Amino acid sequence: MQTLNSERDAYRNCLDRMLRATTQGTRIHGLKVLDVDRFRLINQVAGFNAGDEFLGHLHKTLSASLLEGDRLFYLGEDSFAMLCPYRGLKELYAESEQLLDELGGRQVTLGGICLDVHFSIGVAQTEETDQSWEAATLRAERGLFKAKSDGGSCVRAELTQDGEPHQAPAQTPWVECIHHAFLHDGFSLVYSELVDSDFVLTDILLKSGGESVPIADLRVELGSMDLLLAMDRWVLTKLSESSTLANKTLVRLSRASVCAQQFMRFLQRLLTAHPELADKLWFAVSERELADVRPQLQQFLEALKGLGCHAVLLDAGTTADSLGHLSELSVSTVTPFPQALNYQPDLREAVIQAMEGVAGAVGKDFIGTPFSL
């Protein structure tokens, strides 16, 4: 019982961390709840020991199907939950249907009796309005109930009154905002995607000039500043090796890189070996992330300018304090803090007007209106 309680506690704690990331406007995460179809019949026909063995077999099978970063939890009786960071309903549906195709209907022999593997899946995604882990779990369980009601061996999500899967309010992760904002000006987005510190990044996709480079060997716990720095260096090294690097490639740098002198030395060596990168790479840094270390930000941007590199200031605020120093920064382009555009639509026009006015006053270009909401 203690083991089961610990498993449930771990599930709640992990899902709560995911919800905090969603309510802070960073990411949507996914949840799958899985239930064995007609499990009582298995116990009746094969006995409780065989039923326990069956659950153990299913746990191993599901564990083997997890993607990098996913977590599997046993919730008791014949129920399991899978937490899937950074994936919404569309991805969850496709993954669950594939899982059913691969595993559903398989036979396993336990206690001398051949048992069929059948299960149903309910899926949900976290939402900004979720107050606790129970809300997301309840939506997934309603989807599971719908799957059971439809005969089992299928995947379902909670339906709205219109009969459509329940979706979170439309929101665009700020990475996507940056991408859309720069698309109109011929930029390609090459991004080492920063995720929440509670999770481990095990796979990054670099996209450059139509080329996707999977990074399977990088295992970085993003709570470590040293590892954030290592990730930025690793990504830039990969970009220098790309044969199809776009002429205007936006690269987001972490706070760790901006504040570390060794990163600038690394960048100097990289540009000495690959001078063509100075014109191709546009380094994006977050004013919001670095508001408390503005001297280091100023020094870093000046160093970039000295190397002949382009710099873009992201997440610029709208207060006099945060905007007053823009004219002193060595950047050509500023963008607003995307949450002000995405999650406060009533303030969107005011934010854009304020940023356009300030950017013009300090001689900077402003990119805000092309954001996709």
TrEMBL record:
This is Diguanylate cyclase (GGDEF)-like protein. It holds the Pfam family GGDEF. CDD domains: GGDEF. InterPro entries: Biofilm_reg_signaling, EAL_dom, EAL_sf, GGDEF_dom, Nucleotide_cyclase, Rev_trsase/Diguanyl_cyclase. NCBIfam families: GGDEF. It comes from Litorivivens lipolytica. Gene3D superfamilies: 3.30.70.270, EAL domain (3.20.20.450). PANTHER family: BIOFILM ARCHITECTURE MAINTENANCE PROTEIN MBAA (PTHR44757:SF2), DIGUANYLATE CYCLASE DGCP (PTHR44757).
